[in-house]
Write a structure and sequence with these properties.
With 152 residues, the protein is mainly alpha-helical. The protein has one domain (22-144). Helix content is 81%, strand content 0%. Helix 1 packs across helix 4 (63-81) and helix 5 packs antiparallel against helix 6.
Amino acid sequence: MLFSIVLILPWAWFSMKKIILSIKKRPINVIFIVLTLVLYFINNLLFKKITTGALYLFMKGYFNDLICPFFFISYCNLLLLTVNKEMVKLHWLLLFSLCAGLVWEFVAPLIKENSVTDILDLVCYLVGTFFYWLLLKINRNHKSRGSEEWYV
């Protein structure tokens, strides 16, 4: 047991160090992850209970799908940055989200009994991906002008 821990610790330290470096390189990804989690919990604990009509239907059926790409792509980019890669081009981001969305919408219902296919979910994933790209682009342009105050 101790031998296993001794073998794993250097690898874990090296991996954690790479994750920390990827966070330092693109901290906006962590901001997106945290904000997505906050919005997800606020939606599920509050918005779904206090909204009515069309807004309720949107919050219940599509809001989480709209913010999902912010979490998913940010997480993937943090991992990709550990090997000096990153998805930043719109066409690759949309293709990635489309592929993931097709799995979530068409494969998941085959595996998970209470899952259903909803094409509008795919639209929400793609719209959320577009907004992720737009905010990432704004952030990268802002940083390239030499101002680091955006994160403060």
